[in-house]
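Archive entry. Fields below.
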Amino acid sequence: GDSVTQMEGPVTLSEEAFLTINCTYTATGYPSLFWYVQYPGEGLQLLLKATKADDKGSNKGFEATYRKETTSFHLEKGSVQVSDSAVYFCALSGGSYIPTFGRGTSLIVHP
Amino acid sequence: DAGVTQSPTHLIKTRGQQVTLRCSPKSGHDTVSWYQQALGQGPQFIFQYYEEEERQRGNFPDRFSGHQFPNYSSELNVNALLLGDSALYLCASSLGFGPATIQYFGAGTRLSVL
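PREDICTED_STRUCTURE:
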């Protein structure tokens, strides 16, 4: 079945550092790929998405590129802020249209 | 515009009891999905409702059941609670369903089973 594997956290960075959170997936066909973010005490909210190979999703300085050849959708940001501290979830939506989520990666940004 | 609202926020039950969680979808949305999120894990899909019918179901036992009302709001019922049912239960709504459909999540109901 479909699955998503994310790098283990927590990822701890200083403000203005470069961020990469790795995500790889297993799915049949051509799934859509998503990054969701969960701030403390809140539900998940969509950060960005990509629906076909080589698409780049971007939002709030975050980017991720749909790489079918490596089945990856790594999240990057050039300069993180304290306010980016949250848990980030990679997800895919395949033939059933039901999202499959990774375990989440906690990001902690220090001033 | 109200987003997805869930009630109650927190709930404490004992083993064997039954619980009902409630969800109001984002205005204009007609599809509601329920997820279980254990501590330190990603959300696990329980089931999805569309047009008052269960459209899809994840790998959860029949103790988990649900309902969608004509106004698109939804309930999740769990019978014969087990300690392992302790988790954050998330409701998500969307407009229809499809490969690129964005789900909008509520803040969740934290269920503790003692």
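CURATOR_NOTE: The first strand of chain A starts at residue 3 and ends at 6.
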